[in-house]
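Lecture notes, part 5. Sequence design as translation. It can be helpful to think of inverse folding as translation between two languages: the language of shapes and the language of residues. The source text, in structure tokens, appears below.
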């Protein structure tokens, strides 16, 4: 039977997103201070509590969510703020189809939640929908050939704004490699990411490439 590993409700997503849209994004993109005392003070300014560093700073929000502030090293620019909303993994390959059906059933409620705050998405569709957008950064999602085999991203919705420094908001349902093909026990995750400028020195992920 598929095992649930993350389960934030759509209402919790609305509450989190209402706080995120008020964030001082240029300060976030500039990077998290390396000094422990300065880092704690920096996080407190957003209502966050620092947790640990692993491919970026992880923080706990006032609403209880865990956010990943992606960066290549401490004190380097943050290129993405990501929040895993729902995640499930299969115990056997035979469960992959039901796992994918669960992800498809969960998806509309999360889209509706984001729309309640950000309005209608700039683009929304499935893995095989015409006009599927390019990845906002290196490696965030793969090309059409990959999607044809893995159906990943399984679902996608994008919100873009003209405000300088504003993130590109991406709601994504992704499948682990081989899930759709039945190569082994799979997994599915629905997440919200706020993409910012690339780290110019790293040529890394970011949507202003």
């Amino acid at each position: 039977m598929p095992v649930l590993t993350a389960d934030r409700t759509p209402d919790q997503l609305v509450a989190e997103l209402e706080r995120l849209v008020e964030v001082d994004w240029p300060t976030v993109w500039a990077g998290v201070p390396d000094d422990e005392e300065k880092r704690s003070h920096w996080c407190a300014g957003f209502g966050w509590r620092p947790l640990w560093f692993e491919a970026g700073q992880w923080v706990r929000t006032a609403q209880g969510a865990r956010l990943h502030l992606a960066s290549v090293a401490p004190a380097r620019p943050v290129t993405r703020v990501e929040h895993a909303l729902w995640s499930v993994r299969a115990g056997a390959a035979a469960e992959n189809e039901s796992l994918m059906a669960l992800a498809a059933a969960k998806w509309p409620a999360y889209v509706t939640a984001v729309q309640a705050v950000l309005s209608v998405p700039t683009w929304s569709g499935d893995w095989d929908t015409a006009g599927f957008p390019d990845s906002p950064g290196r490696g965030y999602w793969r090309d059409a050939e990959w999607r044809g085999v893995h159906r990943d991203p399984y679902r996608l919705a994008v919100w873009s704004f003209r405000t300088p420094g504003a993130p590109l908001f991406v709601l994504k349902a992704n499948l682990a490699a081989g899930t759709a093909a039945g190569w082994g026990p799979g997994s599915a995750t629905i997440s919200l990411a706020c993409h910012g400028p690339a780290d110019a020195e790293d040529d890394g992920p970011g949507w202003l490439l």
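The translated text above is only one of many valid answers, since several sequences can fold into similar shapes. The chain has two domains: 3-14+81-195, 22-76.
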